[in-house]
């Protein structure tokens, strides 16, 4: 039994598929499959049910997964202890993030950390806020950069890095194009264009509309804020998006402030404040918090 086999086994279990695990590990998919089959032969039992789409753990797979994770953690701990004697920080950190405003300079933050700790491998994964939050809670991500909506699960730390107004935008020929603002209550029944569920913007929109006594009618969804504006420019509805996402499209769009109450969108970095983290992860979290803004509420 080799550590590589255990690493591949854990990756396939967490990704629920051989192809996604291979992409995460930066290896060819046949190699992952071959190592898992070898591990199954050594254990004498199948670890995955391959009958459907993806790969689901069998009962045996579920039972041995904690031991595989513990073995990998023990080896990582041995390396970390040895590295502490040489002053070298090594390991792997995983950051999950959504599309971010350029003002945050995320590439600069990552480059500065790599320059300081070249032996630490950094992985950046893009996903929705809901999946990112779950990934931080379960330990898949060491740090998440995501939209903030409702309350966070216990045991997490958060630093707000973006706090900006959310605005409503329509095309220049829309009946609302003559107004400067729109009350939240006036959004009722309008065909809205929004980010999908699980994002901080969508959570903020649903929360403020719920307080006004109605559920928003979202006619179109898109995963990128700038696409929301493009849909509105084609006359498909009223887009709700961050104020910064309108920049450069004012010739096609009319912007309305959302009032009574004001609608705001927040983004933050989130990490596990409780539980064990590797030295590399701790250093990365501290570096990110120093580099990124800290907007006190």
From TrEMBL:
Q: What InterPro entries does this protein map onto?
A: HTH-type_LysR_regulators, LysR_HTH_N, LysR_subst-bd, WH-like_DNA-bd_sf, WH_DNA-bd_sf
Please state every residue range assigned to the domain named HTH lysR-type. 1-58
Q: Does the keyword Transcription regulation apply?
A: yes
A Pfam family (short name) is: HTH_1
What keywords would UniProt list here? DNA-binding, Transcription, Transcription regulation
Record's keyword annotation contains Transcription? yes
Q: Which family does it belong to?
A: Belongs to the LysR transcriptional regulatory family.
Quote the protein name from its UniProt record. Answer: LysR substrate-binding domain-containing protein
The protein's organism comes out as: Nonomuraea monospora
């Amino acid at each position: 039994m080799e550590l590589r086999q255990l690493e591949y086994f854990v990756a396939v279990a967490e990704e629920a598929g051989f192809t996604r695990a291979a992409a995460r590990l930066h290896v060819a998919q046949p190699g992952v499959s071959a190592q898992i089959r070898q591990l199954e032969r050594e254990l004498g039992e199948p670890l995955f049910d391959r009958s459907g789409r993806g790969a689901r753990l069998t009962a045996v797979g579920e039972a041995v997964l904690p031991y595989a994770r513990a073995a990998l953690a023990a080896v990582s701990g041995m390396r970390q202890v040895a590295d502490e004697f040489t002053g070298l920080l090594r390991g792997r950190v995983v950051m999950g993030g959504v599309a971010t405003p350029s003002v945050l300079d995320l590439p600069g933050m990552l480059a500065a950390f790599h320059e300081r700790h070249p032996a630490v491998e950094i992985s950046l994964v893009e996903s929705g806020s809901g999946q990112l939050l779950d990934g931080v809670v379960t330990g898949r991500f060491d740090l998440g950069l995501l939209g903030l909506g409702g309350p966070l699960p216990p045991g997490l730390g958060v630093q707000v890095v973006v706090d900006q107004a959310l605005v409503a935008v329509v095309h220049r020929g829309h009946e609302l194009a003559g107004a400067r603002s729109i009350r939240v209550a006036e959004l009722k029944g309008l065909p809205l264009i929004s980010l999908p569920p699980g994002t901080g913007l969508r959570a903020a929109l649903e929360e403020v509309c719920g307080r006004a006594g109605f559920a928003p009618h979202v006619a179109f969804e898109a995963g990128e804020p700038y696409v929301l504006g493009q849909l509105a420019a084609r006359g498909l509805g009223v887009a709700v998006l961050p104020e910064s996402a309108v920049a450069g499209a004012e010739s096609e769009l009319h912007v309305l402030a959302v009032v009574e109450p004001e609608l705001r969108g927040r983004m933050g970095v989130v990490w596990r404040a409780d539980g064990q983290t590797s030295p590399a992860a701790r250093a990365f979290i501290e570096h990110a918090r120093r580099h990124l803004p800290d907007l006190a509420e």
